[in-house]
Amino acid sequence: MKILVLHGPNLNLLGSREPEVYGALTLGEINSAISTLAHELGVEVMTFQSNSEGELIDRIHSAAVTCDGILINPAAYTHTSVAIRDALAAVALPTVEVHLSNIHRREEFRTRSFVAPVAIGQISGFGLDSYLLGLRAIFNHIKKGL
Ligand code: DQA
Questions:
Q1: Prediction pTM value
Q2: Count: domains in the chain
Q3: Per residue in 97-141, pLDDT tens?
Q4: Distance from C-alpha of 16 to C-alpha of 25, rounded to nearest angstrom
Q5: CATH number of the domain where residue 113 is located
Q6: Atom of ligand 1 nearest to the CA of 10
Q7: 49 close to 41: Cβ distance less than 8 angstroms
Q8: Residues spanned by the domain of 49
Q9: Which mutation among 5, 7, 101, 113 tests ligand 1's pocket best, with the greatest number of atoms within 8 A of CB?
Q10: How many Å lie between the centroid of ligand 1 and the Cα of residue 146?
Q11: DSSP string covering 41-86, please?
C-alpha cells in the first residue's frame, strides 16, 4: 500500500512558525514520525511539501497511478482552493484531511474547507497526532477495500 502525504504552504516553517498554534515540531520531525508509523503498519509513504498550489496539484495527479490514498494538510489552501479540491475529486483516491490546529475554534474563515467534501474525513486539532491518526484512518479504510 502506498500513501502520498502532502503538506501545503508555510508548513516548511513548522518549528518556528507560530509555535503556540502549531507546536514546536519541525516538518522533518513530523515526517519522521509519519515514516516510523508507516513502517509499523507496513505502508509505503511519500511525503511532499510545497508552497505552490500547482505543484501540489501535479503531485495529486501523479498519485492517481502510483498511490492508493492521500493524506493531506492543505494548510491555507484548505480555505481557498477549488483547484486542489477538484484535483482530489478528479483522481478519486481515498483522501484524509488533517490539520495541526483545530480549524473550527479559530478565525471564522478557517472553518470552511473546500477539501472536506471530497475527503473521507477530517482530523483537526491534535498536532502531530492529527497526521498519525489520519495515517491510521486512511490505512484502515484502504485495507477494508482491498
Ligand atoms: C493548518 C490550519 C490552516 O488554517 C492554516 O492556514 C495552516 C495550517 C493546520 O495544520 O492547523 O497553514 O492547516
A1: 0.97
A2: 1
A3: 999 999 999 999 999 999 999 999 999 999 999 999 999 999 999
A4: 9
A5: 3.40.50.9100
A6: 12
A7: no
A8: 5-144
A9: 101
A10: 32
A11: HT-EEEEEE-S-HHHHHHHHHHHHHH-SEEEEE-GGGGGT-HHHHH
